[in-house]
Amino acid sequence: MSETHFHKKVAILLGIAERQVDTTIKLLDEGATIPFISRYRKEMTGSLDEVQVANVRDEMDRLRVLEKRREAIIESIESQGKLTPELIVQLRGAETVSKLEDIYLPYKPKRRTRASIAREKGLEPFAVMLFEQKKMNVEAEAQLFISEEKDAKTIDEVLSGARDIIAEWVNENVEAREKIRQLFKEQATIKSRVFKSKEVEGEKFKDYFDWEERLMSCPSHRMLAMRRGENEDILTISIAPPDDAALDILYNQFITASNSTSEQVRLAVEDSYNRMMQVSIESEMRMFTKELADEKAIQVFAENLRELLLASPLGQKAILAIDPGFRTGCKVVALDKQGKLLEDTVIYPHETNKIFESKQKVLALCAKYNLEAIAIGNGTAGRETESFVRTIDGLPKEINVIMVNESGASIYSASEAAREEFADKDITVRGAVSIGRRLADPLAELVKIDAKSIGVGQYQHDVDQYEIKKKLDEVVESCVNRVGVEVNTASKQLLAYVSGLGPQLARNIVEYRNENGPFKSRKELLKVPRMGEKAYEQAAGFLRVVNSKHPLDKSAVHPESYVIVEKMAADLNCTIQQLMAEKEMRKQIVLQKYVTDKIGIPTLTDILNELDKPGRDPRKSFEIFAFDNSVHEMKDLRIGMRLPGIVTNVTNFGAFVDIGVHQDGLVHISQISNTFIDDPNKIVKVQQQVMVTVTEVDIQRKRIALSMKDNAVVNVPVSTPAKVIVNKKGKVVPAANDFASQLAALKDKFN
Length: 751
What we know:
This protein folds into 4 domains: about 5-105, Orthogonal Bundle (Arc Repressor Mutant, subunit A); about 115-300, Tex N-terminal region-like, CATH 1.10.3500; about 320-440, YqgF/RNase H-like domain (Nucleotidyltransferase, domain 5), CATH 3.30.420; about 635-750, CATH 2.40.50.140. About 45% of the residues lie in helices and about 10% in strands. The chain is built from 30 helices and 17 strands.
């Protein structure tokens, strides 16, 4: 099948023009990256965005894999001398792998089976007679096929062997398999049961000890949870539709009479379904639903990662970063505006006799390096350390104290990148540096960590590892190129994600920078070893040289378009600097005047926008956040409390929110919104600052239930006094500790 035919299919499937597919595939095949294509080749693709370009690539890859398998199957059947014109038509018409494999099944080389053994006994002619279902004396005909020489010694052996052959025919029937496959999709249930004596060991899978639901409505998180339980030998899983429904489908297709021969066919059909087809289709559906679950889980993970990577940066500030700890103390580092480590020390603010000394160390570092912010990791002792810092007399008010999500910092601390940069420092110092840098620029720091370790997904180790790596790498690449990279300060890890570069070129850029000093222009990048014209074309627009003499080098305008901006400036009789600085002058530009056969209005519009705000950061401005100072641990929580929090993870079943008690609370999807409960991603994102109501607290199981609804319904157990209750009007109603007062307060809650 031709590539052109594939392009047509992709265009129809994605609802775009075939020309857009043709051009996009051509660019991808030539080595262009998705960020480059979507940003700098809009005229060629019809302004397809990153998602659309990725969809074109993925669909084309799927069709190419399908075609490769098709050709392998045709070659295999041809080598057997069994390829017919009719079979070629069938194979060429198959549009899915499952249909292709169904057609191939009768010709697929097999191990020795019951049916092949029966054929060796010479029983296939008798099987054909039975399958025709004509009236005959079955036992008398079977008697004719008894052969001591071929080891078919009895009538029962002959009948059994013939049924084995028929069972294989039924199992290999394309139409029958498709019908049963559809039945699985429509009516199959997934059941999980706990293995006997594994109840205690598998306590975390308790919800699935005796679970059953419709297969195709099983959400991805439950599917992956059950499969994990099965992989850990705690659960056993089965997938099947009602047996009667499956057998009725097969009876209707294969039973054509009502006599003794059709009874033999009926027995063969039952055996075929129970022994072969049900097992085969179940295995197929396991794979199919696993792929669906993986896809959904990976998508959720990817969206969470995108929000985290694009979290608001504090910017280039001198920062004091603290990695909290109780017994071992808090590791403290001072970082300059570029994130360079200036000094490190240890304080012990949680030991009574060392509080004063700890305060003095913090004040001294802040004064010595003119520090502008204090970053505190949100792990163990985080809230306690925050409280300590806020009580330091003499700490300048302009220094903001900010809690930072330290998830993954320990991974970075032990990484090769951290060892390379801080060979003489222990992992706790490296962790503190990572916390500080994460506050200044989350994207630049988080790219150094394996995305799966950042903690914004679920079941990341249960999904397809190749697919999750591919997707997360794409997300990181997308975010890095969307923000842009300052080539003179970026780490090699960050540079590696720039369009067209990769690890080796990134390393070469850093080495060139170290040997020759800061890059003075984008053009100088061509002097970097192995930086060819193609790599430069792909990367240049995403790299910034802030201090370059050429004003466009700090913008997202691609060097290939500099000539256009120069012409705009010349036409207005001004310099490029003036054009970038004066809005009224830019208003005089008539874009149509600069349209060429390669550059159209989309690119010209991007250029004009970039001249307005060269090198602008697409991320939101940083907002200071603080937890409620009255809660530090789970025991401080009271049902009904209304608290500020930060969303740390969004899943298919709800969102997890950090409220500052070392244990994230869960806002179930039903408690996220009165309007948008079907899709939490529409209104809730990782790093979003939210207000939540505490609805349940289980200290023993370390579970906190939260609500984001204004009129949250709270369950107040007698043993847990409610500190506050929120009524429907948003009024905070105090409640006393005694049961009668709690009931009175609950009544007021619904007034």
